[in-house]
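Lab notebook: predicted structure, single chain.

Context: the supervisor wants predicted structures on file for every construct in the current expression panel, including those that have not yet been purified. This is the next one on the list. No modifications to the sequence; it matches the entry in the shared construct table.
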Amino acid sequence: MSPRGALVELALAGAWIVGLGAGLQVLEQLLGPANLGGAIFGALAVDLATGRVGVRWDWDEPAPVGDAAPPSSARAGMVRGAKGLALGLGLGALVAAICVAAGWAHLGPVAKPGLALAFAVARAAALAVRDELLFRGLPFAAASRAGIPPVWARAFGALAGGAAVLLVPGAGPAAVLLGVSSGLLFATLWERDGGAWMAVGAHTGWRLLVGSLLHGGLMDLDWHHGELAVGATASGGPAWLAIGTLAAAAVAIRRRTLRSARD
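Prediction complete. Output recorded below exactly as produced.
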């Protein structure tokens, strides 16, 4: 594809992101940012809309041969999603443990899991699906059509994560860079996995632990120096620690992917 055509593809992806993002903002204003139904509806709407422009959960799904049954991509995808979930939860737990050890926060009361936890899991998964298809899926689909190297899609996806936080009133530099760092990790997982499953799982795990489980879902951290959170309230040492941790994880995964490709 010509350079002009590649630019058109990227511009169209950007237009889709802006348009769908604006629609989601209106939805949140109508239903409230913590509404589970709004999160699920937003995820379904983004899935349908992005699917129309070529975003797929699996890019490298083999076609069935003859009368053979189609491959069980959903089952394989769920396994990859579970691996991503473990990664997101593990990174969040690591950062939180270091924050407590450093004296930036202390552990408050530990709550028993209840129905609220199930709602938190469902909402985190819905928001992860929504944001991954929108901020990472669209750039990768556009780059694939335009013949652009995936490195540019990774950069686009990372910056889109930061831009989403930047638009929230009161967001500081640490919160914006945490959005960039997490976006880089998830975009790296998109490329490694050949689709959305692992990135959605990791995004769900990170959002669930940092956003809900540490803020009353299972335990309540009392922050003394900054705060570890999803979105504009992340600040101080905990946010910078998370930025470095997620960026280091992205670099490690990228190196492992390149090593596997050479072998």
